[in-house]
Amino acid sequence: MKLLLTSAGINNKSIHDALVDMLGKPIADSNALCIPTAMYGHPWVGPGVKAWEFISGNSENHMVELGWKSVGVLELTALPSINKDRWVPLVRETDVLLVGGGDALYLCHWMRQSGLADLLPSLQAVYVGMSAGSMVMAPNIGEFFVGWTPPTGGDETLSLVDFAIFPHLDHEMLPGNTMAAAERWAAGMRGPTYAIDDQTAIKVIDEAVEVVSEGNWKHFLT
């Protein structure tokens, strides 16, 4: 698997260069699918204008508008109602999945319901997550980030990496996302964690983990 787990998209040259390196070819030669599903579960970002901005490449968080050869939409809530032959080949052939932010538990629920969660480990595509799109890869997200409640309860997510992520560290619009808050959150988690700001990403290839940053971050070991 190739994962680029960001707090707020491709926000600087270091993260952009990491993405191109993971693709193994220029962005202009790469086909992308964007996944807006997490947005619908979060009261601040969807549904409505924010979802349209993300899909159309008019968002302040750079992912869809990077100059891809093509961009399609993969809406996870629709997939259980259509035959897998309609969408699985499309996902297998794409170069990159662009997974937007929102509510991580809502995203996790629909990744599982749609079947995408089972498909992810076998994909050759680069997975680029933003905020909740990154957090969903972890074993769990912690009570600090629980918003939408899944039918089974709890805060468990996909466990495709062995660490959890606290995004938007020290963000001016999120006064609660301080380093002190991240430390308290990390102390209550079951494994290693990272707090990352919007200029930081975590690059994962197989089991190799690398922080790519022009900003502020911290790795907590518990």
Output the keywords:
222 residues, alpha/beta, Rossmann fold, seven-stranded mixed beta sheet, three-stranded mixed beta sheet, 27% helix, globular, Class_I_gatase-like, Dipeptidase E, serine protease, Peptidase_S51, serine-type peptidase activity
Describe this structure in words.
The structure is a single chain. With 222 residues, this protein is α/β, with parallel strands linked by helices. It has a single domain (2-161, 198-213), classed as Rossmann fold (3-Layer(aba) Sandwich). 27% of the residues lie in helices and 21% in strands. The protein is built from eight helices and ten strands. It has helices at residues 13-23, 37-40, 49-56, 84-93, 104-114, 116-119, 132-135, 179-187; strands at residues 2-6, 31-35, 70-73, 96-99, 126-130, 164-166, 193-196, 200-205, 208-213, 217-220. A seven-stranded mixed beta sheet has the order 3-2-4-5-1-8-9. A three-stranded mixed beta sheet has the order 6-7-10, covered by helices on one side. Strand 8 and strand 9 (208-213) form a beta hairpin. The longest helix is centred in the first third of the chain and has 11 residues, at 13-23. The chain is globular and about 45 Å long. GO terms for molecular function: serine-type peptidase activity. It holds the Pfam family Peptidase_S51.
